[in-house]
Amino acid sequence: MDLMRNYPQIPDLERKARRRIPKFSWDYLAGGAGDESGVARNAAAFEDITFSAAVLGAGARPGTPDLGIELFGRRYALPFGVAPIGNSGIIWPRAAEYLASAAKEADIPFCLSTFATSSVEEIGPLVGGAGGNGWFQLYPLEDSEKEDDLLRRAKQAGFGVLVVTIDAVYPSRRARDVRNGLSVPPKLNWKNFAEMVIRPAWCLASLADGAPKFKNVLPYFPKNVTYTRIADMLGQLLSGTIDVPHLERLRKVWDGPMLVKGVLSADDTLRCRDAGADGVIISSHGGRSFDGFPGAAEVLPGIRAAVGPDFCLGLDSGVRTGTDVAKAVALGVDFVLLGRAFMFAVAALGEAGAAHAIEILRIELKSALNQMGCTELAGLRDMVNQQGES
Ligand SMILES: Cc1cc2nc3c(=O)[nH]c(=O)nc-3n(C[C@H](O)[C@H](O)[C@H](O)COP(=O)(O)O)c2cc1C
Hints:
Blueprint: H1 3-6, H2 10-20, H3 23-30, H4 37-47, E1 69-71, E2 74-76, E3 80-82, H5 95-106, E4 110-112, H6 120-126, E5 134-138, H7 144-156, E6 161-165, H8 175-180, H9 190-197, H10 200-209, H11 230-237, H12 244-253, E7 258-263, H13 266-274, E8 279-282, H14 296-307, E9 312-315, H15 322-330, E10 335-338, H16 340-349, H17 351-371, H18 380-383
Parallel strand pairs: 3-10, 4-5, 5-6, 6-7, 7-8, 8-9, 9-10
Antiparallel strand pairs: 1-2
Bound molecules: flavin mononucleotide.
């Protein structure tokens, strides 16, 4: 099948994914907190950014612009990577394996969630072990011994960059999940059962892979814990709060670059920098934790201005196209992560979806640079319109 012809854009994969997975999985993937205005605001913030149409002066002929970036002394082939996704196994079994392998192949970052349904030990080799493409996302844990052990395992498995998430320490309220009775483990009521059986590809893949398990944190559950108590166990593991001393502690424990994810203000960015973080990821968790926060792209210029040109900034939340990646880079980020876009791709096409989504975004980004006569990513910064310009 000619994937590019059938699915030339991420929204094509989104539509296909919606038809291919059960409604409770779809809602878990696509939904947002509260009235979901945070999800919409992330998208709107990107729509509002435009580039200068004055391309005659650019001079460069369309070609093969350099899309590579350097982060923490290492080169990546593209300025975007895969965001951490918890409980990904209920969206598509082995999604983390597929995305990790495709990220390694394309030489882009892959970030594994604390609450992934694949373990650091399973994913580490797929992302190339030490010096490879693996980043590990940590939800701060209550017990520092368990936290240290998890970080030790991630390091040993070859994950080089630590990403500490600070924006989902308090459980979020997503109405779609509440309505569906989505729980850990999933409730097998008649409604959910009926939704599963009309999605045979998902059912077969799920049967082949077995029930999803939170493999990174399983060793920290008490022995003989029953499957029905997993949600309680997960809740008890989390610290429920995060503060600067906790970040400072993690800074001492983790030997390698440390990023803080879920930052939306200049003040917090400066606090993270002072606590020893090597960078922050501007993110509203894709609008999943709270519907009252601004869009990520909206706050980016203010954060870059406050922190100066050299501090590493990443961004996620609302990125769906290569043009969005170009916009974020133009406004001053060093890299971008995408969550739902990659999961739509795997839910739509299974293993083949991972590489296909990367290719869509690469082509769109290359096209954006060529449209504006930019030969490298840095050129985008001269082309982005400040508010009111055209
Ligand atoms: C289904 C789902 C699960 C997620 N799980 C995690 C997680 O375990 N840890 C984390 O830091 N962020 C998690 N996120 C947030 C993503 O890492 C990322 O911030 C978000 O998806 C970016 O927005 P986008 O989906 O619009 O690209 C999750 C997002 C989704 C959609």
